[in-house]
Each structure stands twice: as C-alpha cells, then as structure tokens.
C-alpha cells in the first residue's frame, strides 16, 4: 500500500493542495479526477519526487506503513506530456526506464521489442519522436512506463491524445496486463467514461485548495460495466465536479 498523509503544496502566491490524504492499494486502478488546476498533477509529481521549483511541499509518503522519501524505485511516473527524449529513437526511449534501472541496452531492448505491435508502434523503432504523431508518442511513453518493474504506477492522462478506438484498445491492454501482473495504478483522467469503466475506486479532488472530497468504490464488476449500469455513478461524479467548479 502506498499512502500520502497530510500533504500541503504551496506556490509563492497560494495554497494549491492542503491536508490531502490518499491511499493506493497494491492492486487495481484508482482514478483521480477533479477540475482543471485543482492540483492532480502536482500531487503525482510530489509522489514521484519531481515537484517543480517554485512549489513547496510538506507531507508524508508511506510505503507498506514505512515512511519513504520520493523518488522511490517502487513508484513509476508518467507525466502528462510524453516526455520522450527527442535525440533518442522510439526504441531507445521505450527502453529508457529499464536502462536507468540498470539493464543492459540489449536486455532492455529485448523486453520492449515484443510490445511494439500491441501498442501499434511496429516500424517506429528506429524513428525519432518528432517523426511520430502525438498519439504514437503517447503510446511510446506508456510502453516505457508499463515495462518498468515498479509496484505502483502514477499515470497522468496517459490516453488523452489517443483516438477513441486506440484509447479503448490501450485501456483493455492495461486491464489485461494488470490481471496478469497486479500492480497499483493511480490514473489521472478528465474522462468520466474512462474513470468509471477502468477504475476500482474513484477519488474526486476539489479545488482552492485541492483536497480529496470523495472516495467512491465502483461497485460493478468490469464485465457488467455497461453504459446503463454506470450512468448513475457518472451523474454523481458530474454533480460533484460541477459543485466544485461553481463554488
Ligand atoms: N511550478 C509552478 N509554480 C507555480 N504554480 C504552479 C506550478 N505548477 C503548477 N502550479 C499551479 O498549481 C495549480 C495546480 O496545477 P496542476 O497542474 O497540479 O493541476 P491539475 O489538476 O493537474 O490541472 P489539469 O487538470 O489542468 O492538468 C495550478 O493553479 C497551477 O497554476
């Protein structure tokens, strides 16, 4: 279990997040939703140990009940932008996390190469990020995230640049992969369909200052998550978000 306790994040001009607490089980997907600017990305960056200069934070991160000081090898982070290195090929970018973790170039390549087809990236191995579409770059970044061995994945809108069909394909791939190799995923998304169809639990953040205002288990098992079955939950989430943006 990964936990945040009493997190406060401040900029020089204001409180961005106050008294934020959340826990992330070692299995399943927890979605983090909230109005734009409420601090979702800042929370992930803090937990990944890369809060930008200009923001100041206080709070505790706990892994299995023990305090940790991010960054931590159990925590893998995928930022909102694809953050691919322009001077590396797509294959090198995809293998980068494994290289940083100490694998040889050859072993890292052997791990990522079989996944290029599943990610719709066949033939892009020797290309550079600038030669790919935004959606392809986002898939390459997601591939880089998914091959890393950390127990917890923090992913910030990983499917936002994908067309509808590719998005569904990647979501299915994620669910299948987690069923084979359970890990804890914290998924930031603006898409209520994505949150309700993928997540086991949904955390709603309010704003000014950012804090968790609702922690909602999704009680419907995945095969039964039809549009009709999820409509009520989506409506509840929509109302919560509307209240926050209007208040
Ligand atoms: N480096 C920084 N310096 C000062 N303020 C910052 C910095 N980074 C973010 N902020 C401010 O912190 C607030 C929260 O930003 P953050 O990106 O965490 O929100 P978010 O909920 O992820 O937004 P979105 O959904 O639009 O991605 C915003 O008001 C933003 O302007």
UniProtKB/TrEMBL annotation:
Domain of life: Bacteria
InterPro entries assigned: AAA+_ATPase (IPR003593), ABC_transporter-like_ATP-bd (IPR003439), ABC_transporter-like_CS (IPR017871), ABC_transporter_ATP-bind (IPR050166), P-loop_NTPase (IPR027417)
Keywords: ATP-binding, Nucleotide-binding, Plasmid, Transport
GO molecular function: ATP binding; ATP hydrolysis activity
Domain ABC transporter: 2-232
Family, per entry: Belongs to the ABC transporter superfamily.
Protein name, as recorded: ABC transporter ATP-binding protein
Higher taxonomy: Bacteria, Pseudomonadati, Pseudomonadota, Alphaproteobacteria, Rhodobacterales
